[in-house]
Design goal:
Blueprint: H1 2-7, H2 9-23, H3 38-49, H4 51-71, H5 75-100
Length: 103
């Protein structure tokens, strides 16, 4: 009996955390406060959506495709393409998620 209870502790903690967020929605307002971090957010967003982000996406895609071709397996190539795709559109998607969230 005790072993099965110990096995389910992480699940119970996750359910309790979700319940707390649902009951007290003021906890999740962190995306609209914290003006002191705006400069950091702007820098990271501009870097990720600018030439740095595009370079990292291209390098990740090329490394994945190269590893896939060298090993003869498709998984590294797929991972490289997914990394390149997410690196290109990821920052815009994340900003839209936070901008469009009704909290």
């Amino acid at each position: 009996m005790r072993d099965s209870w110990k096995k389910n502790v992480p699940l119970m903690l996750a359910v309790m955390a979700v319940a707390v967020v649902v009951v007290d929605p003021s906890i999740v307002h962190a995306s609209t406060t914290g003006a002191q971090f705006k400069e950091l957010h702007d820098f990271v967003t501009e870097a990720a959506s600018g030439y740095l982000g595009k370079a990292i996406a291209i390098i990740g895609g090329l490394v994945g495709l190269g590893l896939g071709a060298a090993t003869g397996k498709a998984m590294p190539a797929i991972t490289g393409v997914v990394l390149a795709t997410f690196g290109t559109i990821g920052p815009k998607v994340i900003d839209q998620v936070f901008a469009g969230a009704i909290i």
